[in-house]
Every structure is written in C-alpha cells, then in structure tokens.
# Entry
Amino acid sequence: MTDNSETTYLLAIETSGIASGVYVSRNKELLGQVTLYQKNIHSRRLSLSVQQLLQHLDLSLKDLQAIILSAGPGSFTGLRIGYSLAKGLAHASNLRILEIPTLDVWAYQVGQTGLPILSYIDAHREEIFFSCYEREQDRLKQTSDYRIIPLLNLPQMITGKTLISGGNLQMFREKFRNVLGNHAIFPQVCSRQAEGWALLALGYEKFKAGDFSQIENCEPLYLRSFKGVM
Amino acid sequence: MILGVETSCDETSAAVISPRKVYSNIISSQAVHVDFGGVVPELASRAHVRKIIPIVNEALVEANVRLSDIKGLAVTHGPGLVGALLVGLNYVKGLALALNIPLVGVNHIEGHIYANFLEGKSIPFPFICLVVSGGHTQIVLVRDHLEYRILGETRDDAVGEAFDKVAKILGLPYPGGPQIDQLAAQGNPDFIEFPRALLKSGQFDFSYSGLKTAVLNKINEMGEEQCRFSLNDICASFQKAAVEVLVKKTIEAARSFQVRHITLAGGVAANSLLRRWMTEDAAAYHLNVIFPPQKYCTDNAAMIARAGLEYLRRNGGNNLDLNVFPSLRLPEYQKDTND
Amino acid sequence: MITNAVTRTEWNETVRSPQETETIAVEFSGLLSQGDLVAFYGELGSGKTFFIKALCRALGTKTDATSPSFTIMNEYQISSDIWICHFDFYRIEKEAELLNLGLDDFFYGDYLCLIEWADKISSFLPPHHWEVKLNFIPDQPESRNIKIHKI
# Structure
C-alpha cells in the first residue's frame, strides 16, 4: 500500500510555441503526455487532450493538486488559450495554478552541463526574448531579467562560452554564431519545444515551495506591453 | 440554470439565466480603448484574461448560485475578435470539462436576436430582424427558434463602418456613430443628396462603400472651412442616405415575405433616426416594430445564454473541439420551395 | 495547372473596370501560398477590399471576404489547415499604437495575410512580402492603376 496523502498529481500545459502539450506527473515522475505539433489547433484540441490524457491515466481533475502553466513569453494567442482553459478548470475544480516562465524551462532542459546558459524565444524582426542562468550547486540560478533584446546587442550580455537553448535552433544557430562567434555553444540534441518533463519538474519545485499564483488575475508573461496603458 | 459568457469584443460579460428569469447579467466594459480611437484587439484579449473569473464570480454571487448549480454553458464563438473569443471559449471549455456539463457555442448575432426572448418575453414567429453594427448589415428572416435565413446583406462595408469612417473623415472622435447621430439632429438632411445604393426593389442587399466614397469626394470638393461650417448638414445628409436604405429594405422584406413583426439588433439599432423612421414606416403598413429592452441592446452574456438555452433544449451541447470563427455567419436553414 | 507561358509575377497596368481588376486578382492568386503576406496600398475607395474579395474568391474561401475595419482582422478558412487573415488598419492613428499588438502571431504564423492600409504598420511587416498598389487615375472614376511586385 502506498500512502496517497504523499502523492502529488500535477497537470502541465504548454502552448507558448509550436506545440500544444499536456502533461501529467505523479510527484516528480512524468506519467503521460499528449503533444501535437499541427499548426493553429491549440484552441480546438487542448481541452480534448486534457480530457483524453486524464482518461488514459484513470485520473480525474479531482485527483490533481495543481495546474502548471508555461507562462511565456511566446505566442500571445497560444498562451492565452492555455491560460483560459486552465482558469476554467481551476475555477470549477478548486485547483491551484503554478506559473513557470517558459525561458526557465528551456534553460532547465539543458541544465546538466556546468556552462552558463542563455535561453531564448523568437521575438521576430531580429529580436529575442531571453534570460541568462548559471549553475549553483544543483540548481540553476537566473542571472538576468526576462528581457527582449536585438540579436546584435547580445555581445554586451554574453562575454564567455555560453550554452544556447531555445526554439527553432536550426535557423538561429547561424544568427548566434554571427554575433557571438565561438562563445555560442549549442546542445547536441535540439528540442522543438519547451519540454513537458522540464515544465513538470520546475512546477513540482514551485508546488513544494507553495509558490502559487492567483487564479483570478494571473496572465501570461507577455514581455511586450503598451506604453502608458498596462 | 445556464451560465452565459460573452467575450467577442471589448466587453467581458457573464450571466446566469433560466428561461423565464435573468438572475444576473454582469458587463464589464474596457475603457482602455478610448485612447486608441477604437478597439485594440490585443488589449481586449489581455483584459478578458484578467477579468473572466472576477466577472463570472460576480454573476454567480448576484444570482446567489454556485458553479455546481449550473446545468449548461453558453459562449459566443463568433463573429468577433479572434483573440477575444478564444479567451471566453477556452475558459468555458475548462468549466465544461471540470463540471461535466454541456457547453454550446452561440453566434453573437443570434444572441442579439434572442435579447428579445429574455425574461419570458418573445416575438411571434416569423419575424424580420435587421442586424446593423460595425461589422454587420443583414436582413434576417427568423422562421422559428434557431431557423434563420439571410435575405440580404452588405456587399462591402457594414453600415456601422460607414458611420465610423465618415466620422473619421470629418475628424469626429471614436466611436463615430453616436457623434454623427447627435450632430445630424441639428442639420439639414436634404443639404446634399448622397447616393442610395441598391435601392431597387426585389432584392435586399446593401452597399455602403459608394456612399462613403461620395461623402469623401464631397468633403474634398467643399474644402475644409466650408466643411466645418456645414458639419451638421453633412452628418444629417449622410445619415439620411444611410438610414433610408435600411428602413426601405426592411419594410419591403417584411411585406414580400408576409411577416408582421420586425426587430432590430446591433449597435446601429440605437440610432435615433433609424428608430423613428422604422417605427413610422412600419406603422404605415400595419407592421409591428419591437425593440429589445435597452439593457439587453449592448453586448451582454444574458442574450448569449438565452440563445444557448434553445440549442441545449433541442440539440444538446457541442463537442469540446468547438472552435472560434471571427467571421461566423448565422446558421441558415435549407431553403425549400415553400419560401 | 500546366501552361507553356512564363508565369507572370509583376503587374503595372491600367484597368478600366472592376472586371479587369478581378482578372488581375485571379491571376495573382495563383502565385500565393500559405505563409505569404500581401500589403495593399491605396486611398479610401481605391478598391482594396474589392481586390481582396476577388482574390479570396479565387483562392476558394467558403464565405465572401468583408471589410474587417471594426475588428481590424477577419479570418477565412480555405481548407482544414489553410487560413487567410485579412487586416484593415484604416482606423489606426499612429504606428506606435500597434507596437506589440499581437500581430506577430499572424504575420509569422503560417497564415496567408492580406493587409489593407499596410502603410500604417510598415515597420512591422516581415522583410519579404508582396506589394499591391491601387491608384486613382485623374478624371477616370472607374479606372485604376494596379502595381504588383514582390519585395
């Protein structure tokens, strides 16, 4: 017999980029996932993915302790679909919400080396959303804010060998090489997305720390705001 | 009891209703857009994300119910701003999944038609609905519950858009429709004879692109100073041209389809000339014009819930893979030989 | 479609009627695919919406394109995974207002984007796109000069 009171079930939702992903963990362990890469289907499929994944795992929403959201930055539309669905689920099931900045996820999934890390998300027009991290004992410590920067200005930020992690690396590899030269180090395996297992792992840490978001007013990390309005 | 949610534009709204009663109908308008001269889609979407739960909670509290008392969900899934619609729809999907109750997607225009059916009221079928807003100009024959036929519609600009564009050409602040309405009240409607497009009998389509261009040409011809001097007259002349076509075609549609009742929906339905003229002309032909209660004329969730209720009664709910459609059309019934 | 003629990729023509405009729109539609962006330039009443309507019909939209100026954007579906986004920025006052307007989701999101009043958002346009310019011709109210080219 296992002691159920010690078991934490978490549902994670990732819609910041090309993937429409739903993940469930038991404590730190990934139990199951549904990830779709078809374009423009977050809105139609995401709720179905949640329903089906829970069914496959013989779980119901009542078994969950919290919902983890990949908070962005990224596609505004995609992020809002994830947030809106999670708000509906959380509102009706009294679930709590944990928000994980997506740049943290990109960094975490390559975090095993000792190198400093720069994670990025395409902001278009030769700009990136980015954040920097360094390893400190067994954790990653963020060493910058979440910011947006023109690629050309990166050398001001990056002055030594740095591991780069982010989406569409095939296209970005050359751009980073051009501005950072051999300071830019790339992971051996390129991910297409902020990975569900990494999102769950970071969410679990945040859950343990009791660092919950307010479900009423939480909103994506847009990193682009309207002057004087928001 | 049904919970309705409406987020198609810049108003976040939630309502709890039953067939005979509106228990609550909370509407939160987003004032932020005034500074921008119109609705900014991204701003609207962001505000919906922040407001959706507080507004739904307010609706529940005012109705004195809990989410677990709700038996069905209705949400606008078009037409409207895609990003704004997505917030309402996905939030409601979350509720449907968690509460294990049916959800139904409602056409926003259909909602406006059903504003006439709130609080146990109704209009006898069949009736004609003139839908006039920033995005729509349609004459709809409503044969029975949820049975629509679009008899005519604009081939280019919507009438509300013509109002807004003309207002902008004249340098009036947004939203332009009410401004023109006000100024026109002090102007001479016969000052300029603007063209009435497609005012031929027997068909019910509209065209407002030509009228817009005609106003523009006239203003350029008159020059800035004279234009400022005759502002009220230009507004009155434009408004007369825009409204006359609406009234004439609606009355003609009612008569040729032998329908006795007419109702109006959409933002332009608030236009004072349109209301007056329609009522007068209808009376002359012994037709009955019904305006929905003022409080249900603007975008609101009660009307969405009311239309949703009709769907839930007849067809049950939609699947969770329901999508939003920014240019969603009214669902039309199959035309048969009897029409 | 297989033809021996070299496919045309640029236009600079004077049309005398809406029908002639439509012919060009139909021909031009053959060059467009998912992910493309077309920027339309021309004064009020120069026929941008008319051109887009004809273009959308030729591309096979199920509903007729209508002016989206109130909502800024309309979407039309062609097939299960091909979508057209039709923008109208007429009522946008200053380009700065559009900063961060969430346009990137569409401009870089595998839609076919058709943009009226593109001059209002020029610095947001992706570097490669099509330009369609519609101009009045003095004293010929039915005629227009149509210029199309890729940049």
Observations:
- The helical segments of chain A are 42-56, 76-93, 102-108, 169-180, 196-208.
- Residues 131 and 145 of chain A are 6 Å apart (CA to CA).
- The interface with chain C takes residues 38-40, 75-78, 122-125, 222, 224-227 of chain A (CB under 8 Å).
